[in-house]
């Protein structure tokens, strides 16, 4: 498991916005900024570790109660402020993702982490459905409920293309215990079954990514790479504005049609049954 979760997120939030501090009133684990991207102002959001947090689980990068509700607060505010604007003028939301997981601590479970995570995920989806371009940039790790809470509802998901990127439902060690395999056996299985793989190239084969991006040094990006990533984000924003506000593009890509044939066929059959019921 990486010891650097959250570092890339903070680095890229600062590189893209020029800010590195939470807004007044926000917890120290959420960075939010209305910053320039191309010729428009976008809302940038990022969750980072806070070793001093009163909630132990979020000290190393998990997305907890305060993080989820704060994300939802910022998203709902943007939706309300742009409510009467035409789609072409709706503010873009850019989620910079480098999160370990959803916080599965006893305190969080008792206080309703499921509700907090749902509030954030619903706010992201609501922004997308209202016409806001929602773009995710996976700069590090995107695990489990952490990614569901922060970023997975985006119109377009971009990811860096390097060995430090992991997009998955579960960490290797936990998946190995549950499937009663060794980590080595699990990795071998990933070579045969794309959804089981921890390689971002296999994740891209599922059709869920808009684009893989190369950066020479993601933790210390030179200015030229930052400008290149901004250019890619602008392209994704323009593509999202032209596309549907649902997530149908994830099933229509060439990669999805090739790798997820069975899933697409089942969805089509279920839809036909629903329409004919």
UniProtKB/TrEMBL annotation:
<dbReference type="InterPro" id="IPR029045">
    <property type="entry name" value="ClpP/crotonase-like_dom_sf"/>
</dbReference>
<dbReference type="InterPro" id="IPR009648">
    <property type="entry name" value="Malonate_gamma"/>
</dbReference>
<dbReference type="GO" id="GO:0016829">
    <property type="term" value="F:lyase activity"/>
</dbReference>
<dbReference type="GO" id="GO:0005975">
    <property type="term" value="P:carbohydrate metabolic process"/>
</dbReference>
<protein>
    <submittedName>
        <fullName>Biotin-independent malonate decarboxylase subunit gamma</fullName>
        <ecNumber>4.1.1.88</ecNumber>
    </submittedName>
</protein>
<keyword id="KW-0456">Lyase</keyword>
<dbReference type="Pfam" id="PF06833">
    <property type="entry name" value="MdcE"/>
</dbReference>
């Amino acid at each position: 498991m990486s010891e650097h979760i959250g570092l890339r997120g903070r680095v890229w939030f600062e590189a893209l916005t020029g800010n590195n501090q939470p807004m007044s009133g926000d917890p120290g684990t959420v960075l939010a900024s209305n910053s320039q991207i191309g010729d428009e102002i976008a809302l940038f959001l990022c969750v980072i570790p806070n070793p001093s947090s009163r909630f132990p689980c979020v000290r190393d990068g998990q997305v907890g109660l305060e993080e989820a509700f704060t994300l939802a607060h910022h998203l709902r505010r943007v939706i309300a402020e742009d409510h009467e604007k035409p789609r072409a003028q709706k503010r873009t939301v850019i989620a910079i993702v480098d999160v370990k997981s959803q916080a599965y601590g006893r305190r969080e479970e008792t206080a309703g982490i499921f509700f907090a995570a749902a509030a954030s995920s619903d706010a992201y989806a609501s922004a997308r459905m209202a016409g806001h371009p929602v773009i995710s940039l996976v700069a590090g790790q995107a695990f489990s409920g952490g990614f569901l809470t922060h970023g997975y509802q985006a119109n377009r998901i971009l990811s860096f293309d390097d060995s430090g990127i992991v997009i998955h439902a579960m960490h290797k060690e936990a998946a190995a215990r549950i499937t009663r395999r060794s980590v080595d056996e699990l990795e071998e299985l990933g070579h045969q079954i794309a959804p089981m793989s921890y390689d971002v190239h296999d994740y891209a084969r599922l059709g869920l990514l808009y684009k893989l991006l190369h950066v020479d040094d993601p933790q210390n990006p030179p200015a030229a790479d930052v400008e290149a990533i901004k250019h890619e984000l602008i392209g994704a924003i323009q593509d999202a504005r032209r596309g549907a506000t649902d997530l149908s593009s994830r099933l229509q890509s060439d990669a999805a049609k090739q790798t997820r044939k069975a899933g697409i066929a089942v969805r089509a059959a279920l839809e036909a049954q629903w329409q004919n019921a």
